[in-house]
Design brief:
The chain is an alpha/beta fold. It has one domain: 3-Layer(aba) Sandwich (Rossmann fold), CATH 3.40.50.300. The chain is built from 10 helices and 8 strands. Strand 3 and strand 4 form a beta hairpin. 36% of the residues are buried. The structure holds 2'-deoxycytidine-5'-monophosphate.
């Protein structure tokens, strides 16, 4: 008798630059399908927060890898959608979303050993009935066997506006000019790094969300999902 084939938990990846709307869109998709949600950027951000707390330099690859093994993180999302993140029991929700943390995350994310160390953590999110994975390299590196790969784009000025609005809603002060400069700098680093650069997978569906609202973007992706599931 031949062995029962292992049925792999389906993954849908949503990659793209910061401010493309992928986080919000991914959360809506996960809620709509009743699937798990991985915000992979939050793991890089958490590592950056832990490094700051422990005085680990953002280019100290070995120390950062050791830190990944020690981190105890807890993510909760209230039914109203309010996020709370604990790092070793300490509430880091606010610090996690700041632009300086995003920048530090982008620096640690350029280190190959750090990316490898975070792979197992990301793979653990793949649980039944399915996973929506949001990031930069979800479709290219972390879940290359995803059943659907989306790459969300948007013009830099539009992405800066969205980030600025998000930060304001979280009570984080920053000027629009600062946010645009950060968005451009981070894009440049994420797109040009040697390992797992931000780029669409060959089989990704590219969607430009510059002139689309969240509901329209989600509806477009759901249409694609329903052709395969
Ligand atoms: O999505 P975000 O802004 O929270 O991500 C913060 C940084 O983490 C981003 O600038 C690049 C890095 N990152 C990455 O390299 N790979 C991922 N899969 C997710 C984030």
């Amino acid at each position: 008798m031949s062995p029962t084939p292992l049925i792999k938990v389906p993954v849908i990846t949503v990659d793209g630059p910061s401010g493309s709307g992928k986080g919000t869109v991914s959360q809506h998709l996960a809620a709509e399908l009743g699937w798990h949600f991985l915000d992979s950027g939050a793991l890089y951000r958490l590592l950056a927060c832990a490094a700051r707390r422990d005085g680990v330099a953002l280019n100290d690859e070995a120390a950062l890898v050791a830190l990944v093994d020690r981190i105890d993180a807890e993510f909760t999302l209230s039914t109203g959608g309010t996020e709370r993140v604990l790092l070793d029991g300490e509430d880091v929700t606010r610090a996690l979303r700041g632009e300086d943390t995003g920048n530090a995350a982008s620096q640690v994310a350029a280190l190959p050993a750090v990316r490898t160390a975070l792979l197992a953590w990301q793979h653990r999110y793949r649980r039944p009935p399915g996973l929506i994975a949001d990031g930069r390299d979800m479709g290219t590196v972390v879940f290359p066997d995803a059943v659907l790969k989306i790459f969300l784009e948007a013009r830099p000025d539009e992405r800066a506006l969205r980030r600025h609005k998000q930060l304001k809603e979280k009570g984080i002060e920053a000027s629009l000019e600062e946010v645009l400069a950060e968005v451009r700098a981070r894009d440049e680093r994420d797109r040009t790094r040697e390992i797992a650069p931000l780029e669409p997978a060959e089989d990704a569906h590219i969607i430009d969300s510059s002139d689309l609202d969240v509901d329209t973007t989600v509806a477009l992706i759901l249409e694609q999902i329903h052709t395969i599931i």
